Amino acid sequence: MTPEMHRNAKHLVTNSEHFEKDCDYFFCQLNEHFDWFKLLDIFRQLAVLALAFALGWKNFLALSNLIFFLSNQNFNDAANEIEAKGYSYLADVMRTGEIKFAESK
Fold it and tell me: Is the dihedral of CA 52, 94, 4, 11 positive or negative?
């Protein structure tokens, strides 16, 4: 994810200063600690970022199976781990590499 993509993704969700600081923190942590994070496509990066944000850094780091699967680009097993934590939408993004938008009626 380029810095420009990162900035744009943050502004899609909210312009909250606190959110931006938190998002920056988790994005930097993921980039600094995991080489595999840089290799993910943008949607999978966003899914991992959202999960780390939702769980908190310490709890995210405790997901050793998920981290192992991601480091090996085993997205199906990674998605199963995410789903087991109750984040079905993020699991779908991890599994497919796509974000599905709701269709308007």
Answer: negative
As given in the structure block, the two tokens for residue 99 are 């974000």
Is the confidence at residue 76, as pLDDT, over 70? yes
- How distant is the alpha carbon of residue 60 from its chain centre? 11
Q: Which two tokens stand for residue 1?
A: 């994810």
CA separation for the pair 98, 19 (Å, rounded): 23
Residues 64-91: what's their mean pLDDT? 96
How many CB atoms within 10 Å of residue 9?
Answer: 18
Instruction: Flag whether the pTM goes above 0.90.
Output: no
CA 89 to chain centre: 11
Per-residue confidence at 26, pLDDT binned at 50, 70, 90? confident
